[in-house]
Amino acid sequence: MKQVGGLALLLTVGACSFPSTPGEGNLLHGVRQFQASLFEYGARGEVIVSMADNVSKTGFFGKNYENIMAFRNVQSGEEFYLKTKLGNRSYDTAMLTIGEYEVTNLYLQYTYTTTEHMGNTTVTTTHIVRDEHFEGNDNIRFVVKPGRVTYIGHIDLIKAENQVAADGRIPTNSFRISDKSDQIPEKQAAQWRREFGADYVVDMMTVK
Known about the structure:
Blueprint: E1 2-4, E2 7-13, E3 28-29, H1 36-40, E4 44-53, E5 66-73, E6 79-85, E7 91-97, E8 99-118, E9 121-131, E10 140-144, E11 149-158, E12 174-178, H2 186-196, E13 201-202, E14 206-207
Parallel strand pairs: 3-6, 4-11, 11-13
Antiparallel strand pairs: 1-2, 2-9, 4-7, 5-6, 5-8, 8-9, 8-10, 10-14, 11-12
């Protein structure tokens, strides 16, 4: 993979070759497969998060970004990420070891491919455009408790306008955390109840 400007490029050669998305290989996925025995014995807890942004647009010409929260276990240092995408999934969940976690990166990611034909060879390039660290200098933390399903909040990623304010300041990207548990559809809550065997509780992330 090579860096060109602000883009991460991965080149592959072959007919109709579509490479996997680079850049997330160093982060462990939050465990997607619910393991009831670990949950019941108090070795794991389940977290739920929702995310959105102010720039994603659906439609043929719209850019639809992934909203990604990368975080690590404060005790073990293990890294994970959760992500949502407009029109695809509003929530993401993970089964995690108990303990305290801190957010290491809140970012937008847009992935697209281009194809170039060179004689009998097709070269497919995956482009990854990222806008990172919406959390700035803030320390965002949450706690995973044994045998508990926890909604930790909704995160809005707010991309700054590409302009300078009247006082000369350059706006920066930011985020907002809010409790939108009252907007969770009953159908979604029932699905989690069946999957995890318990109702979720609200225990919001903290910001320092």
